[in-house]
Amino acid sequence: MTSLPAPKPRWPLRLARRAVSPALFDFWATRVNRLWTLEQPLARLVSRTTASRDAVTLVFRPNGHWAGMRPGQHVSFGVTIGGRRLVRSYSPTLMGDGTLAITVKAITGGVVSEYLAREARIGEIVSLDKAFGDMTVAAGGESLLLLAAGSGITPMRALLRDLAARGMPMEVDLYYWARQRDDLCFVDELQAFAAAHPRLRVHFLVTREGDAPAARVDTTSFDAVESLHRRRVLACGPGGFVTAARERFNGHVASFEAEAFSLPPMTPGDDEAGEVEVHLSRSGRTLKLPRNQSLLEGLEAQGVRPANGCRMGICNTCACERTSGTTRHILTGDRSSEPTTQVRLCISAPRTDLILDL
Ligand SMILES: Cc1cc2nc3c(=O)[nH]c(=O)nc-3n(C[C@H](O)[C@H](O)[C@H](O)COP(=O)(O)OP(=O)(O)OC[C@H]3O[C@@H](n4cnc5c(N)ncnc54)[C@H](O)[C@@H]3O)c2cc1C
Ligand code: FES
């Protein structure tokens, strides 16, 4: 794991750990320097540049508590907006000087992305969680087919920068879809990598422009990809894109891995309408939650704030014990009713009355 030098537990820190709680220490220390904390990884925004028509690249300098990441992983950022701390995941590129660059696409009506893309100012402090995600590429790995749509290009960019630095050790084809040409990010950089490394081919596809818009992932021809059946396929982008990519490639290639950045549109059947009763055994509360929404969103709408990170079933932060009842996996449609089982609240919808260990 690429990491920054961890802070040495020098005697003043060891003493502080014994003498005061981390929260109390942070309260006073951050009044002197906003990045000084006992344990909490924080980062300061040091630069912002336009990445495309609706995306901006923000560069953050982390404090010494951040444990680093591997290219292709994600990090949940905590941002305070209107006095409320909100957490969203982004896919940083670790730069040579130890800073983290994220490229944020502004989603219309999106609370955090619009704030980061339009309002966050230099000097802004965010919190960082531990990096997560398994779409990383080890030395000596098999040839790759990378599929990215919209902001799904961000982990691919981190992977390609790393592979370029390692001399492009395998065949790589990148297919990158955007609605319009000026929505594409990193065009010059990706073209420069392809020019410098004959084993890398980059395909830009624009789906809402011109007389003959590009085909989508389910209709694009991949005949140009050599030995497609032997490729490891990594796909990233909105939920609908990932679902279509999975249907197209799963079982036809050496392996298929995907990470969705948003849930696919929910089209629940009749049996998924209505509400159920969810009992929270620790707090003793019983709430009525809709069946056609994730448990996380339903709970948040009623003022309950379970810990969460990626909100897409990847980081496991929201895992909680379902003591009884049946839930539906929003991404696969699978139902599960085994008692005393861990469920991820962000990708589970209630199907029957439930008891949760919350
Ligand atoms: C592992 C992971 C890595 C991610 N990396 C990046 C990244 O590098 N860059 C980046 O810009 N985003 C990335 N995202 C998406 C990001 O976490 C947020 O979901 C996104 O910025 C929107 O947050 P918001 O608060 O603005 O929207 P919200 O206020 O949470 O949602 C507003 C509306 O937008 C929809 N929505 C949310 N996210 C998306 C999306 N990505 N595409 C389309 N509709 C969406 C929601 O369903 C909702 O209807 C990543 C997501 C995950 C799970
Ligand atoms: S918040 Fe990451 S798995 Fe649910």
Q: Briefly, what is this?
A:
It is built from 7 helices and 20 strands. The chain has 358 residues and is of the alpha+beta class.
- Individual helix count: 7
Radius of gyration, CA atoms, in whole angstroms: 22 Å
What's the arrangement of strands in the largest beta sheet? 4-3-7-1-2-6-5
CATH fold call of the largest domain? Elongation Factor Tu (Ef-tu), domain 3
Percent in strands: 25-35%
> Regions with pLDDT < 50 over 5+ consecutive residues?
2-9
Measured between the Cα atoms of the first and last residue, the distance is 33 Å
Order of helices and strands: HHEEEEEEHEEHEHEEHEEEHEEEEEE
The CATH architecture name of the largest domain reads Beta Barrel
Helix content: 10-25%
CATH H-level superfamily of the largest domain: Translation factors
Question: What does this entry look like structurally?
Answer:
The chain is an alpha+beta fold. It has 3 domains: 11-128, Beta Barrel (Elongation Factor Tu (Ef-tu), domain 3), CATH 2.40.30.10; 144-260, Rossmann fold (3-Layer(aba) Sandwich); 270-356, Ubiquitin-like (UB roll) (Roll), CATH 3.10.20.30. It has 7 helices and 20 strands. The chain has helices at 11-19, 22-32, 111-118, 153-165, 187-196, 239-249, 295-301, and strands at 42-52, 55-62, 75-81, 84-90, 93-94, 100-105, 125-128, 144-149, 172-178, 200-206, 232-237, 255-260, 275-280, 285-290, 319-324, 327-329, 335-336, 341-344, 348-350, 354-356. A 7-stranded antiparallel beta sheet has the order 4-3-7-1-2-6-5. β1 (42-52) and β2 form a beta hairpin. The radius of gyration is 22 Å and the shape is globular. The two termini are 33 Å apart. Residues 2-9 have low confidence and may be disordered. The protein binds flavin-adenine dinucleotide and FE2/S2 (inorganic) cluster (FES). Flavin-adenine dinucleotide binds at residues 74, 88-91, 102-105, 107, 109-114, 151, 154, 238, 259, 261-262, 310, 312, 314. Residues 74, 88-91, 102-105, 107, 109-114, 151, 154, 238, 259, 261-262, 310, 312, 314 line the site of flavin-adenine dinucleotide (FAD).
